[in-house]
Write a structure and sequence with these properties.
The protein is an alpha+beta fold and 153 residues long. The chain has a single domain, classed as endopeptidase domain like (from Nostoc punctiforme) (endopeptidase fold (from Nostoc punctiforme), Alpha-Beta Complex), CATH 3.90.1720. Helix content is 22%, strand content 27%. The protein is built from four helices and ten strands, in the order E-E-H-E-E-H-H-E-E-E-E-E-H-E. The protein has a six-stranded antiparallel sheet with strand order 5-10-6-7-8-9. Strand 7 and strand 8 form a beta hairpin. The relative contact order is 0.19. About 6% of the residues have low confidence.
Amino acid sequence: MCRPGSVSYSEEACVYLPDTAPIINELQQILETGSRWECGGLDPKRGAGCYGLAYWAFRRVGIALPVTAEEAEHVFIRVCEPYCAWDIVLVQWAPWQMERHLGLLMAPSWGYHIAQSSNGLARFALSHPLWRRGLRHVWRYRVFATLTEGVCT
């Protein structure tokens, strides 16, 4: 039997994910005090880009990701549903645009992102039409993707 806070895909195997509650509490405080978007920024309290939010959150739970999204590509693996907390959502708002955007799931259906359009931190839901329409891929930190369930082949 898996302990609370883990994701279980079978009785024999559990994936233990970091607790999201402290991160959610910090992000809620940042939402209340305000934040700003900053291209390449890595701290939502001072200014961050979309990848900077993921970098900051993972670092808060002791996981050091590479500094840029391009460098981080090798530490994530593409996954299919079911999604879980700590997955990275890749969206592309318009198919003709090259620009992509990242959000960090804090639960299977919702998370946070930092965007220039919102000038800072905002919460999102995968059920929102904009996110549902723009969803391209979901990525999971390789250490959390030790089971084949959800991994796209």
